[in-house]
Amino acid sequence: MGKIKTHKASAKRFGVTATGKVKMNHSQHRHNLGLKTAKRKRNLRKGAILSPSMSATVRTLIQK
C-alpha cells in the first residue's frame, strides 16, 4: 500500500505546536513596505494560529 507524501510547500510554511495548533507567518511583508504603516508591519511580523477548520486540512498535508 502506498503512503501519503508530505506536501513540501506546506511543510515549509506551517508548523505544529506542542498542543497541536497549526502556526503560520503572515504574508504581505516582503516589499512595498513604505506604503504600509508601522503598526501594520509590526503586526505582520508576528506569527498567527490557524483556525481549527483550516488546521485540519493543513495537518493532513504536513502529516504532524
CATH topology: Factor Xa Inhibitor
Order of helices and strands: HEEHEH
Structural class: alpha+beta
Global geometry? elongated
CATH second-level architecture: Irregular
Helix-residue proportion: 25-40%
Termini distance? 20 Å
By CATH reckoning, the class would read: Few Secondary Structures
Strand order of the largest sheet: 1-2-3
- How much beta, percentage-wise? 15-25%
How is this structure best described in words?
The protein has 64 residues and is α+β, with helices and mostly antiparallel strands. Helices cover 39% and strands 16% of the residues. Strands 1-2-3 form a three-stranded antiparallel beta sheet. A hairpin with a 5-residue loop joins strand 1 (14-16) and strand 2 (22-25). It has a single domain (8-62), classed as Factor Xa Inhibitor, CATH 4.10.410.60.
Topology:
Layout (H helix, E strand, L loop, with lengths): L7 H6 E3 L5 E4 L12 H8 L1 E3 L2 H11 L2
Antiparallel strand pairs: 1-2, 2-3
Short description:
With 64 residues, this protein is α+β, with helices and mostly antiparallel strands. Helices cover 39% and strands 16% of the residues.
Keyphrases for this structure?
16% strand; 64 residues; 39% helix; alpha+beta; elongated; Factor Xa Inhibitor
